[in-house]
Design goal:
The structure holds 2 protein chains of 2 kinds. Chain A is α/β, with parallel strands linked by helices. In chain A, 40% of the residues lie in helices and 15% in strands. Chain A has 15 helices and 14 strands. Chain A has a 7-stranded mixed sheet with strand order 1-11-10-7-6-2-3, with helices on both faces. In chain A, strands 12-13-14 form a 3-stranded antiparallel sheet. A two-stranded antiparallel ribbon of chain A has the order 4-5. Chain A is globular and about 75 Å long. Chain B starts with 13 loop residues before the first helix and ends with a helix. Classes of the chains: A alpha/beta, B alpha/beta. At the A-B interface, helix 2, helix 4, helix 5, helix 9 and helix 10 of A face helix 1, helix 3, helix 4, helix 8 and helix 11 of B.
Chain lengths: 401, 385
Amino acid sequence: MAAGPHDAGVESLATDQARTEAALQPIPVFDLKFDADDLTAVAETLRSGWLTMGPRTAEFEDAYAAHLGAKHAVAVSSCTSALHLAYLAAGVGPGDEVIVPSFTFVATAAAVRYTGATPVFADILGYENPSLDAADVERKLTERTKAVCLVHFGGYAARVDEIAELCAKHGVRLIEDCAHVPSASLRGKKLGTFGLAGAFSFFSNKVLAVGEGGVVVTDDDEVAEFARSRRSHAMTAGTWQKHTKHSAGYDVEGLGFNYRIDEPRSALLLSRLAKLGRDIERRQELTRRYRDGLRDVAGISIPFRDEDVAESCCYVMALFVDEPELRDPFRRALLDRHAIQTSVFYPSIHHFSAYRDLAGGTSLPRTELASRTEVTLPLFGHMTDEQVDRVVEAIRAEVQT
Amino acid sequence: MSWVVPLADVKVPEEDVQAVLDCIENGWLTMGPRIDRFEKAFAEYVGAPHAAAVSSGTAGLHLALLAAGVGEGDEVIVPGLPFVATAAAVRYAGAEPVLCDVLGVDDFSIDPERAAALIGPQTKGIAVVHAMGYPAAMSQLKALCDEHGLFLLEDVAQAIGATFDDGTQAGTSGLAGVYSLFSKGQLAVGEGGMVVTSDEAIDARVRSLRSHAMTSVTWDRHLGHWNTYDIVDVGFNFRLDEPRAALGLSRLPRLDADIEGRRRVVRSYRERLGDLPGLSLPWPDQAVERSSHFAFPVVVRDRETRDRFRDELAERGIQTTWYPSIGSLAAYADAAGADDLPRSTEVADRHCCLPLSSSFGDEQVALVVDAAREALPAAESHLKV
């Protein structure tokens, strides 16, 4: 999952230095623009007066499941909630272990802890694809391993086929953290449909963004039923059902939550989903332009291959600097001299205060290096070619000095 | 099914719509300036120093309990009615809810004397619910908590704007007050909640935990530490977003009028149903003036009458609802106290809530009253044979 609201740099745009030294228009790391029809969809929903989950949520779920070629989609309050429900549906509980990357947003691991289980961190492949290394996952398997959760970093497929095979061989559940991939695929099959369940994010800096929101996607009827029940207090009847038919009452079948989305957000999602393909095409164009511009720049590495762009939704444009100690001065220079905001995806989870003891000195050399060298560049659907060129020129100028 | 009079009727006037559209058009959707303004306005409205917006009342209860230090091995006393979230939140924190009986069909809130009897060595606190919008017996509960060194958490999900005799608002006299912005409530936003407290440490902890316990960005000019964050606890994504804050902020100035509208409907119902044989009205008339009227419950003779009454009303297009006792729910059958909730069970069996909205005029009230006057004798026909 990607950066939360406190992450990198938003405040820094307003620094005096950025204002005075660069009479340039700042380029934010992400930016959202909605169309008139998006606003109309929300306005109509609000005017209807029906705000809690109802027909629009059901319509979005059907549309999103169809979009991915999956059987079920269950809309929830966030990707963190989606991960929590997916882990619970996989039977994860106290005493269990779930293998997760450390090169991801903390939610991937935190949701394991909500269940009472322990996250076990595995390393990434490296700069060429900073997603889970199947070989390291295999090394981390124990008799307590209940599930593996991989993250499709930046919008590109992880080695999900290899890891799915590994999970099947060992009788371990596979969950896909699809926070970065609302619409990406591996050899034509949509990401999020390889394991038991996929957890997606609609957070405001995402490719499909509505503020806060998420969805659990699965082909498994029981997982879908479980997620539907637990997102609304494990109640046997919801408000919409009670509104549309006379019900005798309800029971509560287990420990459920309030992980509901609401109708205005579902309306916005439906409206945006129709335009997702167009947005992603533009992100792919921008990504190709970045790759062409940065290809021969010494001192940096660009992850993934040119041919990977076609199946990616191009959420993150990342680069890795060769010298870790130059990363922060480089980011500062981009901001102060060029008014270009960047971010870092991600600090290693196993180094956070709340995870250090639990990780017990785990060494993940490729994750640790990536956390010290990664720079996330601006990328959003309405970014212009000129803005990309400006970022590329700024990088060239700063790398050479 | 299309109801002649639905249980609730949320109106979103154009000024609210515009506030949300302005926010979305602006493009900044995650917690930002509107959340900040909404929190300040909310704190001012209830008369408390701090308010932290969260994703729901349930999430707010979870965070408030964690902030109160509740954890494994602890017990928290919760009422046997009205909603499961209060007890569920105790379980999220790893602790055990102890279900406490309510006063009865005249007052659905927790019985302080029963609560006193349930206090044991593991008890950390009491969560009181101001049921249906009526403030519970706070002074007795506070004295009890003070005597035993317990915290008192107020679940105000149904009672925003309810007041005590001294004019203070429900939600502001315990360790924290947790409000709901759910679409059926007086301040309906869709999904959302608010945690109000006068304790700075509680507020800080709720704010941290609602967004993954990420430390705020420290503008540290030392290059090595620039622009990074730490994760200092197991936190959650319980954030509200800007469009919902915009909606809440737009609706808040009309909240008092909305509550007054509900009260007007309740007074009218009470006048026109008070003499109906077989039907009784919980809470005395003077309590109506202090309640913020989440719902309008009435009490009939027994469960069968209630079920038939609801069926008869449904046939006349009148939507109703009722709240089960927490002890009767499958997931709480084994909870402490679940088998000793006679009055919660009686309330659950005998009550149902009639439609209530500030938008109702005489016409809706008359439709409901006339339907109830026909429906109740029909529902009671089984008693006469």
